[in-house]
Every structure is written in structure tokens, then in C-alpha cells.
Write a structure and sequence with these properties.
Shape: elongated
Strand content: under 5%
Largest sheet: none
Number of domains: 1
Distance between the termini: 27 Å
Length: about 70
């Protein structure tokens, strides 16, 4: 497989993990009655993964693995 294809799958995988973390945070917000920190931890994971994804996309662009579509 080409590195660009693997890189794109990695980006999609990280996006899926971010969405799962976001839904877990929503679940803890709606269903968790006590004052636990589960929601804060879930949203912290989402923010860290989002920053990591942002850096990863810039790195992939600088390496030439992903390119913008010129229309």
C-alpha cells in the first residue's frame, strides 16, 4: 500500500475516535447524576486528539502525502 493511503486511513480512524469520545461526553452529560469527572476526561481526550489530528494533517501536507483539490 502507498503511504498516502495509509495516512488517509489513519486520519479517518482518528476522526472516528474523536466522534466516539464526543458521544461519550454527551452520554455522561445526560445520564451521569453524580459529580464525576468522566465527562471532563472524555472531552479532554477529544480536544487532545483534535489538536493531534490538526498537527498530523499539517505534517502530511508538508510531506506531500495529502494535497488539496484544485478546482
Amino acid at each position: 500500500m502507498d503511504i498516502s493511503v495509509v495516512f488517509k486511513f489513519l486520519i479517518i480512524f482518528i476522526l472516528a475516535i474523536i466522534l466516539i469520545s464526543l458521544t461519550k461526553g454527551l452520554h455522561f452529560l445526560m445520564k451521569d447524576d453524580d459529580q464525576s469527572t468522566k465527562m471532563a476526561k472524555s472531552l479532554t481526550i477529544r480536544v487532545v486528539l483534535s489538536v493531534f489530528l490538526f498537527i498530523l494533517i499539517f505534517f502530511g501536507y508538508s510531506m506531500g502525502w495529502i494535497t488539496p483539490n484544485h478546482i
